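Hello,

Our lab assistant flagged a job as stuck in the queue for most of the afternoon. It eventually completed. Since we weren't sure the result was trustworthy after the delay, we are filing this so someone can double-check. Below is the sequence as submitted and the structure that was eventually returned. Let us know if re-running is recommended.
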Amino acid sequence: MANLKEIAAKQFAKDKDLDKVFITTDGYPFYTENAANLHKNTNSKKEMKVYSFSREVEGESTDKSIDKMKKDELIAYAASNKIDISEASNNDERVAVIKEAMKSKKAE
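-- returned structure --
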């Protein structure tokens, strides 16, 4: 699967706005899960799987999207990236603060 990770990294390097890519076991990347599944289902030569990869943020994998994290996970993620989310009162606010801070870190 390391090879598929390399393919995903190349796709992310090509398209800076891409947050997620779907790659079939034969190495073809797709921007949508539907397209990857269509390829998988129409290729009768071998049994294939579809793997999804998310863009990495500050060296940490975001396979579990920040948007789907629970409160404790968001607090831990923010702490590991030295982001203050103490003013946020709910998960939507925590996610917004984290995303804004990550954008600022990338711009530096």
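-- support follow-up --
The delay was a queue issue, not a problem with the job. The result is valid. The radius of gyration is 17 Å. Strands lie at 20-24, 29-30, 50-54.
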